[in-house]
Design goal:
Blueprint lengths: L3 E3 L3 H12 L4 E3 L6 E5 L3 H11 L8 E3 L6 H4 L5 H9 L5 E6 L6 H4 L4 E5 L4 H10 L3 E2 L14 H8 L5 E3 L11 E4 L6 E4 L5 H8 L4 E2 L10 H4 L9 E4 L4 H13 L4 E5 L10 E3 L4 H18 L2 E5 L13 H11 L6
Parallel strand pairs: 1-8, 2-8, 4-6, 5-9, 10-11, 12-15, 13-14, 13-15
Antiparallel strand pairs: 2-3, 3-7, 4-7, 5-6, 9-10
Bound molecules: threonylcarbamoyladenylate and magnesium ion.
Magnesium ion (MG) binds next to loops.
Length: 336
């Protein structure tokens, strides 16, 4: 298949919309990561999404919308917490999980009685979704297990020749996938941390929002230990910003014959060693996370990442939990 690279012109948006309605897959930008869009009402197109990504069929997809009114076509119940989030937070890098209507098929939700719904903040994303005119399922546009793409060029690396078109938009500003907030019961729970923090949501809803699989807990939970977002080369994670420990580990890897890199808050502290910046704060760390991972894996053969999230540290902010979660998965929970 020859993949078309489309621009954000009226003509190309119309083509992208037609492709979606014809059951084809289209890569498109959002503020979080690029998505792999398909018509949510087209069972075959949705099935194709799983096939193209090599995604396990028990991992449900998010349905993307451009208008809040669409939520009521898809969800059967919108409780008062959901109403608050819909009114006060969306559009934003957040996904809400609600009980589904029959119109959303089991292929989309992997057989679950709930559906995940997201209205992106990105105007480019919404212009594409408006052109599609149907709700659009979209996982991140990477091959399963690879770091999510945050530029159209990275989508091309994974998807060229496999999908009908890629909309070439801006690089993603947020850089990590949306916060997934389960509002299908009266116990609001964050299932995946993102840029909209549980602390903010707790304040907004006037009650504690639970967090599933807290990345800071060292509990050996099988569900969160599987490898994900992994770079092609081995990676470890250090959590204390301990310069001596990082240098010793690096030197050990050099002695073993590796060409390692330190991925740290302040690269200048590591003498002549290969070192690159993780970012000056939590937002920058999130924005650059996957792009840096995809660059480092081509230039080095061992990644030594460091992310120290403490009160009043430079990485203490709303996106920290999401960054730490992605780093933990990327290194397969291999902490040094
Ligand atoms: O930022 C994002 O959310 C991006 C962009 C493209 O919008 N999309 C994305 O999709 O990250 P994906 O497929 O990579 O992640 C979807 C997440 C998975 O963790 C999945 O388990 C969860 O949403 N999910 C989807 N439907 C669900 C449901 N009904 N109940 C619970 N979790 C659900
Ligand atoms: Mg993904």
């Amino acid at each position: 298949m020859k993949t078309r690279y489309l621009q954000f012109t009226d003509r190309d948006l119309a083509i992208a919309g037609e492709l979606i309605r014809a059951g084809e897959l289209v890569g498109f930008p959002t503020e979080t990561v690029y998505g792999l869009g398909a018509n949510a009402f087209d069972v075959n197109a949705v099935k194709e999404t799983y096939a193209v990504k090599g995604r396990p069929v028990d991992n449900p997809l998010i349905v993307h919308i451009f208008d809040k009114a669409q939520i009521y076509d898809i969800a059967s119940e919108v409780n008062s917490y959901a109403q608050t989030v819909i009114e006060r937070v969306m559009p934003a890098p957040i996904t809400i999980v609600l009980p589904k209507r029959d119109i959303i098929g089991g292929v989309v939700t992997a057989g679950l009685p709930s559906v995940a719904i997201r209205m992106p903040q990105s105007l480019e994303a919404r212009s594409f979704l408006r052109a599609a005119a149907v709700p659009v399922t979209a996982p991140s546009a990477n091959l399963s297990g690879r770091p999510s793409p945050t530029t159209w060029q990275r989508v091309g690396e994974d998807m060229d020749g496999r999908i009908a078109a890629i909309l070439c938009g801006e690089p993603c500003g947020v850089g990590i996938e949306s916060t997934v907030l389960d509002l299908s019961s009266d116990e609001p729970t964050v299932l995946r941390p993102g840029a909209v923090s549980a602390e903010y949501l707790s304040e907004l809803l006037g009650r504690t929002v639970n967090i599933l699989s807290d990345p800071t807990s060292k509990v050996n939970s099988p569900g969160i230990r599987y490898k994900h977002y992994a770079p092609k080369v081995p990676m470890v994670l250090e959590l204390d910003d301990d310069c001596d420990k990082l240098c010793a580990f690096y030197d050990g890897k050099v002695a073993e014959g590796y060409r390692p890199v330190l991925w740290v808050s302040r690269p200048h502290r590591f003498g002549g060693r290969n070192a690159v910046s993780m970012g000056v704060n939590d937002r920058e760390a999130a924005a650059k996370l996957f792009e840096t991972m995809r660059t480092l894996e081509t230039e080095y053969d061992f990644i030594i990442a460091s992310f120290c999230w403490r009160k009043n540290s430079i990485y203490d902010g709303p996106a920290s939990r999401g960054v730490l979660d992605r780093l933990m998965r990327a290194c397969g929970h291999n902490i040094i």
